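ARCHIVE RECORD
Type: protein–small molecule complex
Small molecule: guanosine-5'-diphosphate
Source of inputs: curated submission
Record status: active
Notes field left blank by submitter.
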Amino acid sequence: MTIAIERIRNIGIIAHIDAGKTTTTERILFYAGETHRMGNVDDGTTVTDFDPEEAKRGITIYSAAISCKWQDHTINIIDTPGHVDFTAEVERSLRVLDGGVVVFSAVEGVEAQSETVWRQADKYHVPRICFINKMDRIGAGFERVFSQLSDRLHANPVAVSIPLGEGPVTNPQGFRGILDLIQMKALYFNSAPQGTTIDVQSIPEEELMRAEEWHRRLIDAIALLDDEAFSIYDSTGDLPAEQIIRVLRKAVISNQLQPVLCGSSLDYIGVQPILDAVVRYLPSPLDIPPVEGRNPNPKKAEKSESRTPSEKEPFCGLVFKIHVDEHSELYFVRIYSGVLKNRSRVLNPRTGSKELISQLWRMQADSREKLEEATAGDIVGVIGPKDAVTGDTLCDALHGILLESIRFPETVISMAIEPDSSADRKKLEETLKVMSKQDPTFSAKISEETGQTIVSGMGELHLEIISKRMERDFHIKMRSHKPRVTYRETIASKVELEGRFDRQNAGVRQFASVRISLEPVPEEPGISILYKMKPNVLPPELALIFEQALRDELKGGGLVGYQLINTKAVALDAEYHEGETTETAIRAAVADAVRQALQKVGTVLLEPIMKLEVVTPSDFVGNISADLNSRRAMIVNTELRGHLVVMIAEAPLSRMFGYSTDVRSLSQGRATFTMEPLRYDVAPPNTEA
Ligand code: GDP
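STRUCTURE (tokenized, with ligand):
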């Protein structure tokens, strides 16, 4: 059965770790009817954390998509990780979701990582609603966190509910329920059947003034945003509920403001109103601009393509996640246009090959529903494709479109691994292939010099998790060597050169000549390849080979053997001889040009710089900052958060090995930290790379 597009919500639940994302998701899945047993994070039985490694660590690293139903709407929840070591995963989820529920703790409030995630959501223009959770805890403060939303995140919050009491639910003045500022009612959640029934009552007398004041703030925030609402407000001095909801929806979708709700997921208070708000205020796929891409045909590569979320358009979708286990590969696809049918073939424009859709699934919390087709706007699990990787487009073979792929940061750390027995070698290789497909921030290759298998990732924790997964899920016994920093190189200055290949072999001549330029672009990570040749200098297939060869050469390594990054390569010109200019000749000429260019101007060694956030009780600030200084770290910001101090620093990865043990001993085990790749910088002259 297909679903009307306007009744779909693709949302992410976004939060700083520990704010209560998992508990809130759990409760949502329970109320939205798909979970039969309510899970609990604290005993590792929740539904979204289906990876045992995550459940054990209590962090959700690998996103999954789960569908549930609320008021005749299908809500697809795309899981987003809360741990900053995995920002690429957060960005990947943000790319395919249409709206977000951002969960904050009423005690800890807006934390540095919430700021990171908020900024990422800004970057992708994701409309949001906020949920201030943990109202039941000692020290909970709704108003304090509410003002932090504008002060720290520069958000434009409007409260649609406020708490009735704050602090432990067992206290007479504790958190008892919420005041709905749109209906102007008090809602009490009956805890006996897990908050399933809601008691709607009049607002208690003693709370009426406070509720009216907040109601007024809500009306004032929205009345000016809409002509019709304004004229009603002007004549009556108030706005009826349906007007408030209508204007709020418009304003949320256009990112003008963010409704704020409150509750306690743990105590089953205020969760159903989140679902109501998702349906009311967050966009359906129809409210989102058409998806843009380019034509995959190299001859028409400059041509942009776009698809509106309609069943009538040709199919296109984006693979945003691959979940792999020993038995199957499940591809999570966001469908942007058209209809994806079971047992159909679709094009993967990156590889140019067709992929078979052999099964279509709607993934629910604890079951899967088999589908015959799925339509624009929806998110489904697909079995069948073989060569697609995360970030690939799938589309109608007759109407090609290449959506912008998801960008992942460069890996910064690598480690050699060896299977315990040589019998395991093949299995190891296959497992690594599967795992790197699933997690594009991780890669594996065999070292040409040593024959060892090298795995690379985003940090020590990332590699640790990967090793554990291989042992636990794929039953591979192996030894890991010490992790090492992955250095990079960049071209030292701009250079323009010609490369040639001219060989006679058994009377057959192979010939190519190419002109290229290489240029450092410090502000752009990765490599960019531009094709600036006059039309028809090369036939289209060879033009493509020219570009590919440039990319391969830069990836192949600079003078020291590390990949070149922050480098722009331009294909400028070529000489083509009919019958003699072959693919091999082009590749060899490009290799010659790049080699000469590197030798002529040289390369600069780059080292990865990490962004580090250390949270510590103030007693240990001195110890920790002295230690950071000794590691060539630069502390860029220090702020107070409650009784804790948060230090943000930038530090070279080469000096941060084993930091988790060191920071513990510097702080009697009290400080915590997160670290993620930030950028590559010029390495000091004496670096032994
Ligand atoms: P996540 O890291 O954001 O996914 O957060 P979790 O849902 O795992 O919650 C972190 C901790 O906070 C767990 O021990 C939860 O039981 C607890 N927690 C979650 N929501 C609430 C709440 O509303 N009130 C209280 N008191 N604790 C909560």
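CURATOR ANNOTATION: The first strand starts at residue 8 and ends at 15.
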